[in-house]
Amino acid sequence: QVHLVQSGGEVKKPGASVKVSCKTSGYTFSNYGITWVRQAPGQGLEWMGWISTYLGNTKYAQSFQGRVTMTTDTSTGTAYMELTSLKSDDTAVYYCARTIATSLDYWGQGTPVTVSS
Amino acid sequence: EIVLTQSPGTLSSSPGEGATLSCRASQSISSRSLAWYQQKPGQAPRLLIYAASSRATGIPDRFSGSGSGTDFTLSISRLEPEDFAVYHCQYYGSVFGFTFGPGTTVDI
Fold first, then answer.
1. Looking at residue A33, what is its pLDDT?
2. Are the CB atoms for A58 and A107 separated by under 8 Å?
């Protein structure tokens, strides 16, 4: 069975950074990319970016360029998303999802990140 | 950049009734790149439909997707109590990546 298990919730101060992990199991990690999506309270889904688990290349949404870094550890089947220079409107639930062609077929449970002074 | 609009914003219905949700793209898109997700409170989204009309693994056949060009539809033939949720449409483009619609809430 395919599983994506994310790290626990975080509370950060403005200006800090957060790094969320997404540990996968049940499939060959390098066969599927990983996409990161976030959802602010009461809002819709916002795409942050994608990483190829095979080559390691990335594609980031323009709104996060310069602040987000996505990486993988193929030895453990884990993907990471780091977001820097946090602001209050970065408060959201952050999701990782396995990427199959043009859709997202398995999702992590979500990691709540709260940015507050 | 493609913008997705979903209607209605909220659909009030009852178990046993059918539901039709709309997703409209700001310009013509490939149906291969259109997907639908269901999201319940406190849960991650779940893939329902990919490539506009193909059901994902384990999705009941009361869910169906259709459409082409700029207009796409998610139909639920007979609402079950567990179907009351938010439904998101999503487009993938090679330039701008994934784009989501604002969502339609189906409630009782």
1. 97
2. no
